[in-house]
Every structure is written in C-alpha cells, then in structure tokens.
From TrEMBL:
Family designation: Belongs to the glutamate--cysteine ligase type 1 family. Type 1 subfamily.
Keyword check for Nuclease: no
The protein's name: Glutamate--cysteine ligase
Sorted UniProt keywords: ATP-binding, Glutathione biosynthesis, Ligase, Nucleotide-binding
EC number of the protein: 6.3.2.2
The keyword Nucleotide-binding is assigned to this record: yes
SUPFAM superfamilies hit by this protein: Glutamine synthetase/guanido kinase (SSF55931)
Reactions the enzyme catalyzes: L-cysteine + L-glutamate + ATP = gamma-L-glutamyl-L-cysteine + ADP + phosphate + H(+)
A Pfam family annotated for this UniProt entry: Glu_cys_ligase
MF-aspect GO terms: glutamate-cysteine ligase activity
Top-level taxonomy: Bacteria, Pseudomonadati, Pseudomonadota, Gammaproteobacteria, Alteromonadales
Protein's pathway: Sulfur metabolism; glutathione biosynthesis; glutathione from L-cysteine and L-glutamate: step 1/2
Length: 541
C-alpha cells in the first residue's frame, strides 16, 4: 500500500494537480433568529424566505427560529462563499429587523417551552419532519437542538478517482479492496470509507483549530445537572479555560443511547448493516415516552434512532437521494458520492460562519485523509478516537496536552506538526506556480499549533475573559455588526429577484404537495417504516 507521500508524488504533474483541484464543495450553515433583546425569535419562518419544506437554499433545522442556509455544489471557493454571503444578505433584508446569532451556543434562553419546533405544513411529509423534531425534544430536550453548526460537503473529481483507481489496479498488493476484481464504483466507496476512518482518527484537529465555543451563556445550563467545573466571568458567562468546543461535548450534540451501537466504518456493507440495525433497535428509555398517546404523537417510533438522521456522527457518507428514498437506500443503490463534515462550530469572526482559510484547510485535511493508508478500526481504536476527541474538546489548549496514537502517548503539538508537514507538500502541489492561497491558509492555521491563543476558541476566550466582556453582550454586538454588514452587502436587482422568485416557487411547491391526495398520517408512517419498525409501534397507547 502506497504511503501518503508516494501518492502525492504520483499526482505531482499537471494532470494530477488538475485532478486534485476538481474538488466539489457545499456548505450548510445554521443560525438562530433573535429579537432586539438577543432572545430567541418566536414568530413563524418568514414568508419572504419561502417554504422551509421546499426551498433549496433557505430552510430551518430543529426550531422554527433555527435557519439553515444551503449552498449549491461549487468548484470555486470564491463562488461558494460569495453565494453563501448573498443568501445571508437576502435573508437579513427580510427578517423585519431580527438578526442572526453568530455563534454555535444559543442566545439567552428563558423557558424552554418557548423554543418553537419547526413547522413544515400539512402534508404527511411536512408533518413527519415536525414530529421527528418533537421526538428529539422528548428524547434529549429542546436546548440541545438549538445549537448551531456548519456542515461541509466534499467530493473529489472523477479524474482523480480514475487516476487513483488505475494506479491501484496497476499496483495491487493482494489487499481485499485492491483486488483486480473490484469495480470502479466499489473502489470509490471503499476509498471514501478509508477517508472517513482517517478523518475520525484526526477529527480532534478540527475542534482544536476551529472550535469556537469554550464559553456560553449561563442560561443554557440553568436547569441541567452538569459535571463541568465552569469558571464564571461577567454577568452570566460560563467557560472552561482550555476548552475548544462545548458544542461537541456532552452539553452539545451527543446521544448516550447511541454509545452501544458500535456502527462500523470499515466498509460500506458493514456501515449499512449497523445503521439498519440501529433503526430497528428498541430503546426501553424512549419507549417510556410513548409514541401515540391518546391520539397525540410524541415521536416517530421508540427505537434508538427514529430515522437515520438521528445518528449523530462527526462525519457522514452521503449520496443524493431520489424521491422517496432513504439515505441508506441511496448508498446501497450506488455507493458513496460525497462526505459531510459535521465537526465545525460556527466561526464567530466571519459574518457567514466560515471563511476561505478554513475551506482551504479542510480541502487539504480531507485530501490527506483520502490519500493516506487507512487501516480498519477495532474496539481499541474506537476508544482511542473517543478519548482524543473528548480531551481536545474540553482541554485542547492546555499546555503539554498529550493524546494517544496507536496505543502510544504523543503530544498534541508534535502530532500536529507532523500532520502539517505532510499537508504542506499537498499545499505546494495545489498552489502550483501561480498561487500561494493554500500555503497561506495552512501557514495561518499552523501558527495556532504553538500559539493556542490564535485558535478560534483562544480568540473567543480573549474577548470574553481577557477583555472581560460578557459573552452574550459580545455576541449580540457581533450580531448587530454582521446585520449591518449584510444589510448593506451589494446584491444586484437580478440576484435579489432570483431569491424572491425561488421563495415564491417554493411556497407554490409546498401548496401543490399539500393539495395532493393524502393517506392518514398513521398509515403514511406505517408505509414509511414498513421494512424497519416492528408492527404495532404506531398503535395508540
């Protein structure tokens, strides 16, 4: 099996560089709508933004107040971020004075009963989306669901796949995934899962550099029993001195019921088998909630996962689904098409939650994960992955922090310097002779290895602890500044009309869906889960 450096050298020519640069990217950014007081918005999703059910660019996530902006797939980083910025700019012009909360952890939260669950209309599909979110409320509480993040979708070019496939076939070494009989499509899926395994071993790098939630408003935990020994500053700011991403801690997107699933990433078939079993696995805890109680639906079902989207993971294998198709069915049909990175906090120092240096680093990081040898993961490896991530999430900037690599202790800084040395080789190749963009981005984040204050979490701590600014006050001022910036961001009449037309078309599409003949909701759910959920799950109790 070729090493990372050998693969990079194999691609070190004009055709190889062009194949590498053929990456496709997409961004999904979440942001809460807030009122003038910095409190969660209570009104409906603005009609000017279209239908949350059918608008391809602007939708909602868990809450009616939690907006999600989705970019089209793009080759160009500049075009990708310009499109994301335009979507933000159109949105703030249509919020009736409301603003976007520019960090991952929520704004001031009073009564959790005032967190509005997203509504998607009267169609069975829309009702199911709302009920899924109602189920999340009963299972984990509403607070966890209004934490915002950024998702980064990534795929490489067919040209790169062809070059890697041809090289593998010419240099097969008896490995199962390298055998002469493997198809091109299976090779792509196996390679993406190799990327995923390497990503999971190195995922701690992302919260170290890009984690930006070391502090939060005390209102977030006022009714929770937490084990963290928070320090306090200002009127109500809580923080952990060396934390990087409380969003990724036990306070954030976690599901302890899923700890027993042991879903394997060693191959696509093993992954699909694990997800399929999880969807069918009953939960005694969730069964106590009830499903349909006196005609009131509380969740989709009482299994560990209501649907596949409830599987919380820092990365997902994805394929665009056909109408009516579940994510796992799409993967089983045609293999992995792209991966979704889910370990990114909202960058509070960007008006759109992510910047170009981060995107370029992610390009390098994910290509490194793809091009590096990737052994299967066993139980000990899984434990190591979890322990490293937890250590960095809670104490990533702690001087002298050590991690475990293949059972051996290694300093975080030492490991990162080794990684960045290999990423540097790739950055030089991608830049070629006419650019230094990847090298500049890499050098920017390399400074944070030895100077943790230059990480995003370090910069947040500087604002709220060193400067002594209350977290909510600081974030609220950012919200105002970004609102002003986006409200005056240049949008052509044509661009603005395009968004307006898209919103109008999405409302018409939702209306069309709702006017079609519908089964009863109970029958709709039975049909949706007919091959998944045991009979009787949906009966009134």
């Amino acid at each position: 099996m070729k090493s990372f450096n050998e693969k990079v050298e194999h691609l070190n020519n004009t055709q190889g560089r062009e194949a590498l640069l053929g990456m496709l990217r997409g961004i999904e950014r979440e942001a809460l709508r807030i009122d003038d007081n910095g409190h969660l918005a209570q009104d409906e999703h603005p009609k000017a933004l279209g239908s949350a059910l059918t608008n391809p660019r602007i939708t909602t996530d868990y809450s009616e107040a939690l907006l999600e902006f989705i970019t089209p797939v793009n080759h160009s980083i500049d075009d990708l971020l310009e499109g994301l910025t335009q979507t933000h700019a159109y949105t703030v012009r249509n919020l009736n004075g409301q603003k976007l909360w520019p960090v991952s952890m929520p704004c001031y939260v009073g009564d959790v009963a005032n967190i509005p669950v997203a509504r998607y209309g009267n169609s069975n599909t829309g009702k199911m989306k709302t009920l899924y979110r109602t189920g999340l409320t009963h299972r984990y509480g509403a607070l966890m669901q209004i934490i915002a993040g950024v998702h980064f979708n990534f795929s490489v070019s067919n040209e790169l796949w062809q070059r890697l496939y041809d090289d593998k076939m010419a240099n097969g070494n008896g490995n199962a995934c390298c055998s002469k009989s493997i198809t091109f499509e299976d090779f792509i899926s196996e390679s993406y899962f190799g990327l995923i395994r390497n990503y999971r071993r190195l995922v701690w790098v992302l919260p170290y550099l890009f984690g930006s939630s070391p502090a939060l408003c005390g209102s977030f935990i006022k009714d929770q029993d937490v084990d963290f020994e928070f320090e306090k500053t200002g009127k109500g700011t809580l923080y952990l001195p060396y934390a990087t991403s409380l969003r990724m801690s036990d306070l954030g997107y976690t599901n302890k019921e899923q700890d027993t699933l042991n879903i394997s990433y060693n191959s696509l078939p093993e992954y699909l088998e694990g997800v399929g079993a999880a969807i069918k696995m009953p939960s005694k805890k969730f069964a106590q909630i009830g499903v349909n109680v006196d005609g009131d639906y509380r969740q989709l079902n009482s299994n560990i996962l209501q649907i596949e989207n409830e599987f919380y993971a820092p990365i997902r294998a994805k394929r665009v689904t056909k109408s009516g198709e579940k994510p796992s069915q799409a993967l089983a049909r045609a293999g992995v098409e792209y991966i979704e990175v889910r370990a990114l906090d909202v960058n509070p120092f960007s008006p759109v939650g992510i910047d170009a240096t981060q995107v370029r680093f992610l390009d390098l990081f994910l290509l490194h994960c793809l091009l590096s040898p990737s052994k299967d993961t066993d139980e000990a490896g899984e434990a190591e992955i979890a322990a490293n991530l937890k250590a960095v999430v809670l104490e990533g900037r702690k001087p002298g922090l050590t991690l475990q690599r293949d059972g051996q202790t290694i300093g975080l800084k030492e490991w990162m310097h080794e990684l960045f040395a290999e990423l540097s080789t790739l950055a030089v190749l991608l830049d070629g002779e006419d650019s230094h963009a990847y090298q500049i981005a890499l050098n920017t984040w390399a400074e944070a290895i030895d100077e943790p204050d230059k990480t995003l979490s370090g910069r947040v701590i500087h604002e709220v602890v060193v400067k002594g600014t209350d977290h909510s006050v600081w974030v609220h001022q950012l919200a105002k500044d970004y609102h002003e910036f986006l409200n005056h961001y240049p949008l052509s009449d044509e661009t603005e009309q395009c968004y307006a037309d898209e919103a109008k078309a999405s409302l018409a599409e939702q209306q069309k869906i709702e006017q079609q003949p519908q089964d009863t909701f109970s029958e709709f759910l039975k049909q949706y889960f007919k091959d998944v959920v045991p009979a009787g799950t949906f009966e009134a109790k």
